[in-house]
């Protein structure tokens, strides 16, 4: 169990973040700053060692304010664990021109965690610390209906690969999580509240959270909570047509979603 740590956990009010929060509050001596959109209402009074912070992480000013707040609530002590978990998807056919919509998902899913790395590296100044990312299995294999989400997570995947190669941050443990579809409200925001079929397979968020917290504690570089996904990557590498069949099945879900949207209009 993670104990006696000053922790920042973004996206703490829902989904995987909330399940991780429920585990971290149990650790003796942990103090947790929990930045999230609309987090104050849900997390106020959640636990004595949780400090909610209502902030948009998708901007330089938002990330800067988190580090400023952390300095205040941790009494100037270092952040032992920064878990950049916040993120969101779109489920859609990418057939439109909308710069602001594209920019928004990259700000939150890609630029924010990259900038967080830079800020945290500066904050540690050679001291030991842990940075954790929720990247997603989609950051390793693109999916139909998730073109922008896939691209934003592939960007973060490429960043963490390059940082590991550079290795000028040996004082910092970097742990990356690759969950498959998780049964949370995460998918309710993906299509503006319209129900759609989640990609296969689907895991429960408490299972994902337990494996991620255990991975952080053990110093793992990568955490893939779904054994089936890990096996499928090997199988698809050996036999690429398997991936094509899987993509075709998932593309049919997108087609059914598009037909539903068309029928609702």
Give the arrangement of secondary structure elements.
Elements: E1 6-9, H1 15-24, E2 31-36, H2 39-43, E3 50-54, H3 60-73, E4 81-84, H4 99-124, E5 129-134, H5 147-166, E6 172-177, E7 181-182, E8 202-203, H6 205-217, E9 222-223, H7 227-238, H8 240-264
Helix pairs in contact: 1-6, 3-4, 4-5, 7-8
Structure description:
With 265 residues, this protein is an alpha/beta fold. The protein has helices at 15-24, 39-43, 60-73, 99-124, 147-166, 205-217, 227-238, 240-264; strands at 6-9, 31-36, 50-54, 81-84, 129-134, 172-177, 181-182, 202-203, 222-223. The mean pLDDT is 91.
Provide mean pLDDT, rounded: 91
How far is it from the N-terminal to the C-terminal residue, by CA? Answer: 51 Å
The number of helical elements comes to 8
Radius of gyration: 19 Å
Q: Estimate what percentage of residues fall within beta strands.
A: 5-15%
- Would you report the number of β strands? 9
Strand order of the largest sheet: 3-2-1-4-5-6-9
> What is the N-to-C order of secondary-structure elements (H for helix, E for strand)?
EHEHEHEHEHEEEHEHH
Helix/strand class: alpha/beta
Poorly predicted runs of 5 or more residues: none
The largest sheet, given as strand count, sense and whether it forms a barrel, is: 7 strands, parallel
Task: Give the overall silhouette.
Answer: globular
Helix content percent band = 40-55%
């Amino acid at each position: 169990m993670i104990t006696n740590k000053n922790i920042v956990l973004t996206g703490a009010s829902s989904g995987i973040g909330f399940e991780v929060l429920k585990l971290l509050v149990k650790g003796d001596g942990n103090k947790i700053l929990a930045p999230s959109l609309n987090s104050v209402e849900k997390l106020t009074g959640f636990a004595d060692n949780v400090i909610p912070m209502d902030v948009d992480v998708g901007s330089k000013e938002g990330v800067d304010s988190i580090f400023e707040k952390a300095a205040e609530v941790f009494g100037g002590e270092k952040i032992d664990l920064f878990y950049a978990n916040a993120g969101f998807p779109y489920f859609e056919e990418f057939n439109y021109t909308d710069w602001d919509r594209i920019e928004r998902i990259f700000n939150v899913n890609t630029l924010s965690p990259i900038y967080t790395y830079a800020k945290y590296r500066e904050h540690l100044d050679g001291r030991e610390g842990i940075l954790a990312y929720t990247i997603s299995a989609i950051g390793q294999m693109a999916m139909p209906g998730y073109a922008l989400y896939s691209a934003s997570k592939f960007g973060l995947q490429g960043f963490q690969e390059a940082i590991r190669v550079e290795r000028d941050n040996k004082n910092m443990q970097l742990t990356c999580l690759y969950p498959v579809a998780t049964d949370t409200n995460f998918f309710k925001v993906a299509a503006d509240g319209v129900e759609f079929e989640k990609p296969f397979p689907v895991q429960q968020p408490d299972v994902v959270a337990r494996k991620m917290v255990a991975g952080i504690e053990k110093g793992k570089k990568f955490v893939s909570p779904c054994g089936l996904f890990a096996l499928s990557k090997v199988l698809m590498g050996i036999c690429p047509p398997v991936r094509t069949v899987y993509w075709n099945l998932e593309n049919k879900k997108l087609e059914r979603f598009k037909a539903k949207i068309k029928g609702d209009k």
